[in-house]
Design a protein that fits this description.
Number of domains: 2
Distance between the termini: 49 Å
Bound molecules: manganese (II) ion
Helix content: 40-55%
Number of helices: 12
Oligomer: single chain
Structural class: alpha/beta
Shape: globular
């Protein structure tokens, strides 16, 4: 099989998945994409691509691996889709027999499972371990620079344990920078938060310079609220908005509708516990009202 490129998601699971494929197939060419870019065909995939942790592209590709429930398909493909905690796990389990040398990455895969399925405690959020630090460090600056950094992480994993990688100065600096950015963001958006029944409702679509936040600080601040409902602007496109509905991992009440499937109705996707979609800004009121009526 000829493999010329690995197309992967931008997060920790995407990085670890790409690393495993790179390790097995000796391919060093990476392309990072968001799920919507695959669905809307703005990233063209070809027959020599391996696509991981993303939806199956419309064109046929060499291999596809994914674990997102909402990306399940009846179409024919080479590779594997399984509802596991991470895409890295799907790849690891698929190749372990044929490539027993990947067994040494088992701990990294266990940690990737925890990060990608949000299986952590408030304490682990506040004081993350090595995988948490790498995960947080991934998204911190411009998209271009983030991609160079992702390449650096993947290349480093070839000769360095992930714990040593987390202690690396470049990773540490980015982690601390990101942590500071989230604290600053929370200070700015704090009075926009509305607690509506079981929701932490947050609309930051009218604030353009709050910096990039995250849902974890919301979960940890309101551990008894079951879901986060966050409307945010899309940096690259003023006319679009992103809506995230996510299950609060710190809340004991786990009963709600499948959020990934809900967002599928709006061209988005996700898992049972998190759904994301992108909408036109002009449709905000209508769609938010619809979504609220479906989850409350
Ligand atoms: Mn994933």
């Amino acid at each position: 099989m000829e493999i010329k490129r690995i197309v992967t998601h931008t997060d920790l699971d995407g990085v670890v998945s790409a690393f495993l494929i790179s390790f097995i197939f000796d391919c060093q060419n990476f392309y990072y994409a968001e799920p919507l870019e695959i669905q809307e065909r703005s990233v063209k995939c070809v027959g020599t691509d391996v696509v991981v942790d993303l939806p199956l592209p419309p064109n046929s590709v060499a291999l596809w691996f994914d674990h997102h429930d909402s990306n399940k398909t009846d179409k024919k493909f080479n590779g594997k889709h399984e509802n596991k905690k991470s895409c890295a796990r799907v790849i690891f389990d698929y190749y372990l027999k044929e490539h027993p040398e990947i067994a040494k990455f088992r701990e990294l895969i266990d940690e990737t499972d925890k990060q990608d399925s949000a299986d952590i405690t408030p304490e682990e959020y506040l004081n993350p371990g090595a995988a948490g630090i790498i995960s947080i460090s991934i998204k911190s600056r411009s998209i271009r620079e983030d991609n160079d950094f992702r390449n650096f992480l993947i290349n480093s994993l070839f000769y360095m344990d992930y714990k040593n990688l987390a202690a690396n100065q470049i990773v540490q600096n980015r982690y601390k920078e990101r942590k500071k950015e989230v604290e600053e963001w929370f200070r700015i958006i704090k009075d926009k938060i509305e607690l509506r029944k079981k929701l932490i409702f947050l609309d930051t679509s009218e604030i353009d310079d709050a910096g990039r936040g995250n849902t974890w600080v919301l979960y940890a601040t309101y551990p008894k609220q079951q879901l986060v409902f966050w409307i945010k602007s899309v940096n690259e496109d003023y006319d679009k908005l992103r809506i995230v509905i996510a299950d609060n991992p710190f809340c004991a009440d786990k009963e709600h509708i499948h959020l990934g499937n809900l967002m599928k109705e709006y061209n988005g996707g996700g898992h049972n516990g998190i759904g994301v979609c992108m909408i036109d800004r002009k449709d905000k009121d209508k769609i938010v009202k619809e979504l609220l009526s479906k989850i409350l």
